[in-house]
């Protein structure tokens, strides 16, 4: 198969965002009188949207609707002020994006972050490369692992889903890729262990971004 495009997850795949995410969540938890969470815990909690992140971070006895909504609201305000303090592209990502661009491979992003925030992060943190399409969750949209977002990207570019490599770091990404009939590749440098990626359908695992080139 000749792959013409790559669909990237954002957090844990292109950008190491976990420290800023953890700091913002701990700011919210602190205001709610809840204990802080560690980086290791937050790596397990993220990936399925803010509401699920907040639910997982809150103590079992504080997951009522009112507390959950307040936690999300405080997190959004905190994260808006710290999202780019510690966040960086992973080592090797810039070289990969340059190599893919030189080969004429289309670059796309699909994230469970809000759409406007996803676009802003790519625009500001990955400004040296042209992405054909960048998508997050829109108000009327669905979240991964629903494949609708991935299939929409393929349709808009006029590229068959089977011609996409899908690179992500969570079970959610592997499920999305399989449902969209894209080739699922697990990024082992991200937020979840290789065993999780394999268990949820990764057809290849790579330990460094440039290893993706071997699959083209």
Structural account:
The protein has 216 residues and is an alpha/beta fold. It has 2 domains: 5-16 and 87-215, HAD superfamily/HAD-like (Rossmann fold, 3-Layer(aba) Sandwich); 18-82, Orthogonal Bundle (DNA polymerase, domain 1). 44% of the residues lie in helices and 16% in strands. It has 9 helices and 8 strands. It has helices spanning 18-31, 39-45, 50-57, 65-82, 93-102, 115-125, 148-157, 171-180, 194-199, and strands spanning 5-8, 15-16, 88-89, 106-114, 133-137, 164-168, 183-187, 204-206. It has a 6-stranded parallel sheet, sandwiched between helices. Helix 1 (18-31) crosses helix 4 and helix 3 (50-57) packs across helix 4 (65-82). The termini are close together. The model has no long low-confidence stretch (mean pLDDT 96).
Query: How do the strands line up in the largest sheet?
Result: 5-4-1-6-7-8
Relative strand content = 15-25%
Q: How confident is the prediction overall: mean pLDDT?
A: 96
The CATH homologous superfamily of the largest domain corresponds to HAD superfamily/HAD-like
Radius of gyration: 17 Å
Characteristic key phrases:
6-stranded parallel sheet, 2 domains, DNA polymerase, domain 1, 216 residues, alpha/beta, single chain, Rossmann fold, two-stranded antiparallel sheet
Helices and strands, with pairings:
Blueprint lengths: L4 E4 L6 E2 L1 H14 L7 H7 L4 H8 L7 H18 L5 E2 L3 H10 L3 E9 H11 L7 E5 L10 H10 L6 E5 L2 H10 L2 E5 L6 H6 L4 E3 L10
Parallel strand pairs: 1-4, 1-6, 4-5, 6-7, 7-8
Antiparallel strand pairs: 2-3
């Amino acid at each position: 198969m000749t792959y013409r495009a790559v669909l990237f997850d954002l957090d844990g795949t292109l950008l190491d965002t976990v420290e800023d995410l953890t700091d913002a969540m701990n700011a919210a938890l602190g205001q709610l009188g809840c204990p802080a969470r560690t980086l290791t815990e937050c790596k397990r909690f993220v990936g399925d949207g803010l509401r699920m992140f907040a639910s997982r971070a809150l103590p079992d006895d504080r997951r009522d609707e009112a507390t959950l909504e307040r936690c999300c609201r405080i997190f959004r305000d905190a994260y808006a002020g710290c999202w780019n303090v510690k966040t960086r592209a992973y080592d090797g990502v810039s070289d990969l994006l340059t190599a893919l661009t030189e080969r004429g491979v289309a670059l796309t992003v699909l994230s469970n972050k809000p759409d406007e925030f996803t676009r802003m992060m790519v625009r500001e943190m990955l400004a040296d490369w042209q992405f054909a399409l960048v998508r997050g969750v829109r108000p009327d949209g669905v979240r991964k692992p629903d494949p609708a977002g991935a299939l929409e990207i393929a349709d808009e570019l006029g590229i068959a889903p089977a011609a996409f490599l899908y690179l992500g770091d969570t079970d959610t990404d592997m499920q999305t890729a399989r449902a969209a009939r894209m080739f699922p590749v697990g990024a082992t440098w991200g937020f979840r262990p290789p065993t999780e990626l394999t268990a949820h359908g990764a057809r290849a695992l790579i330990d460094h971004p440039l290893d993706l080139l071997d699959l083209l």
